[in-house]
Design goal:
CATH architecture: Alpha-Beta Barrel
CATH topology: TIM Barrel
Oligomer: single chain
Radius of gyration: 17 Å
CATH superfamily: Phosphatidylinositol (PI) phosphodiesterase
Strand order of the largest sheet: 1-2-4-5-6-7-8-9
Number of domains: 1
Strand content: 15-25%
Number of helices: 10
Helix content: 25-40%
Order of helices and strands: EHEEHHHEHEHEHEHEHEH
CATH class: Alpha Beta
Largest sheet: 8 strands, parallel, barrel
Structural class: alpha/beta
Number of strands: 9
Length: 248
């Protein structure tokens, strides 16, 4: 069975509807039909890989702990849905839990953003469950994603760029490293820069876009991939633009 390939990445799941970086949020994004999930990986004090964007847990869990300095058992006591909805409780998931979820859905792929230097441990977790052909990495730290590519050659690599200089300099670097695409910050993209990415055989993407008018503008520019907190909207617009399916 072919993987989905519609260019909509569920940024931390579907945060518009379900708390970010939680298993229910990822399940929701899968049900919507995104082709990639995207998540952030951090390592606890006792070397368990957890999914959380921030270095600390205060914003998402209420209780403010430094993940790298806290053991897994303490992190698991926290509520990752704190502040999202009253009476809802969801633990911070581990990478192993998300990998198991992805393994149960044959058409979805997963993009991992290392938020710590534990690239080797992340890659070993992927290899352990035989998901190397369904994994991607994305980040602005070129060395970390290059290491991931070296450890898992079949991994899809997206180079996340922030400013204009990083984008323009990064196109050649990404091509030389065998990466799949460039995902640029929305403030740095123009049609000319999108064309430059495409000219080098790279997939053009943008992060993070949640506004309908902005999505339309980027699709009109030729951007294929969008990282979004509103995957349902992005998927609907993709269908409208008749580009929901594209051959790989």
């Amino acid at each position: 069975m072919r993987f989905l390939h519609n260019g909509v990445t569920g940024h931390r799941g579907n945060p518009e509807e379900v708390p970010e970086n939680t298993l229910p949020g990822f399940e929701n994004a899968i049900a919507l039909g995104v082709d990639f999930l995207e998540t952030d990986v951090r390592e606890s004090a006792d070397h368990v890989l957890f999914l959380c964007h921030d270095a600390t847990t205060g914003r998402t869990c209420g209780t403010d702990l430094v993940i790298a300095e806290t053991e897994a058992a303490e992190l698991r006591k926290l509520n990752a849905a704190c502040g999202f909805a009253q009476g809802v409780s969801m633990p911070i998931p581990t990478l192993d839990e998300l990998l198991a979820l992805v393994a149960s859905h044959s058409r979805i792929r997963l993009s991992l953003q290392p938020k710590c230097p534990a690239v080797g441990a992340i890659c070993e977790a992927v290899k352990k469950v035989n998901l190397t052909n369904r994994i991607a990495f994305n980040d602005g730290n070129f060395d970390w994603i290059a290491e991931a590519k070296e450890r898992i050659p079949e991994a899809v690599i997206f180079y996340d760029t922030y400013g204009i200089e990083q984008l323009e300099h990064g196109i050649g670097r990404a091509k030389a490293a065998g990466f799949h695409g460039i995902v640029a910050h929305k403030g740095s993209l123009t049609r000319e820069r999108v064309d430059a990415v495409i000219a080098e055989g790279l997939e053009p993407g943008v992060w993070v876009v949640n506004d309908e008018a902005e999505m339309r503008r980027f699709f009109e520019m030729g951007v294929f991939r969008v990282y979004t907190d509103r995957p349902a909207l992005a998927l609907a617009l993709k269908k409208e633009w008749k580009c929901a399916e594209s051959p790989e």
